[in-house]
Specification:
The protein is of the alpha/beta class. It contains ten helices and twelve strands. It has helices spanning 42-50, 72-78, 95-107, 117-127, 142-154, 172-187, 199-205, 223-228, 230-235, 258-269, and strands spanning 4-13, 16-26, 31-35, 57-62, 65-66, 80-82, 160-164, 191-195, 208-213, 216-221, 239-240, 243-244. Strand 11 (239-240) and strand 12 (243-244) form a beta hairpin. Helix 3 (95-107) crosses helix 4 (117-127) and helix 4 crosses helix 5. It is globular.
Length: 270
């Protein structure tokens, strides 16, 4: 049984369909990528899973149970955590206090007076930013703030961790370290669903990848299968029938031809 099953989810905003019968599963202990161009519906799908957005139809199954009616806080208590594409750190608090807040919320009123110093240090050490512990969150680099959000999410001991553009702001070396950290977390039992535009990172760490276009899943498979999928190459990775598209020349992200549109329809129906 998968840990997460997004089952035929539709999200409509007026006449706009942001998520179009999306259907995919995430197995426990794996790293799964959710990729696609801007506006494909990735963050909206995250919002449905975490309870920030009510689906128009369809359901979210977590650990075999329908959680559509559960509010955000109860989904968190069941083990769903996330980071955000737009940084959501508490800017006026220190890095350490940002993590401490999450630990206090996790423990509740009965544990709020217990010391959290060691746990805060361990989490900051885990993500590699312990040297920033005393700095205000609004003064640290963007990449460091991404890692702070990860540490804060991990403080809630998630079983399923949703990461929205987690490597944004990291340089190449930091991204490599981040990839190793994700693999370490997965090895320790944290299931990860990741939205990410860094294809090198996605291809190197993910066990499986699901591809969204216009809110529909058009392809899924291992990184090798996704890399070789002609629809994905053409629609997302910048390939044409003749080979890689010139990055300085025209692209077809917003001008899918009839063959690609047919493939989108077929992929959504599978």
């Amino acid at each position: 049984m998968p840990l997460l099953h997004v089952d035929d989810v539709v999200v409509q905003f007026g006449g706009v369909t942001a998520v179009n019968h999306a259907n995919f599963q995430v197995e426990a202990g794996t790293i799964t990528g959710l990729i696609g161009p801007n506006g494909a519906g990735k963050t909206t799908t995250f919002n449905v899973v975490t309870g920030l957005q009510t689906p128009t139809s369809g359901r979210v199954m977590f650990d075999g149970k329908n959680i559509n009616r559960l509010p955000v806080n109860r989904r968190s208590k069941r083990g769903i955590g996330r980071t955000f594409q737009r940084l959501e750190a508490f800017g006026s608090l220190t890095v350490a206090d940002n993590v401490r807040v999450a630990l206090d919320i996790k423990r509740g009123l009965r544990g709020m007076f217990a010391s959290t110093g060691n746990q805060v240090h361990d989490l900051l050490e885990l993500v590699g930013i312990s040297s920033y512990a005393g700095d205000r969150a609004d003064s640290i680099p963007t990449g460091t703030a991404r890692l702070l959000e990860l540490a804060r999410a991990l403080a809630c001991e998630p079983r399923l961790l949703l990461l929205d553009e987690p490597s944004s702001g990291l340089d190449e070396s930091e991204t490599e370290d981040f990839g190793r950290l994700l693999q370490k977390l997965a090895g320790e039992g944290v299931t990860i669903l990741m939205v990410e535009h860094d294809m090198d990172l996605v291809m190197s760490v993910c066990n499986e990848i699901h591809v969204l276009d216009f809110g529909s899943i058009i392809a899924y498979g291992t990184p090798a299968e996704i890399r070789e999928n002609p629809v994905v190459q053409k629609a997302y990775l910048g390939y044409s029938d003749e080979g890689p598209v010139d990055p300085d020349g025209p692209t077809n992200d917003s001008n899918h031809d009839t063959a690609v549109l047919d493939a989108v329809t077929e992929g959504a129906a599978q």
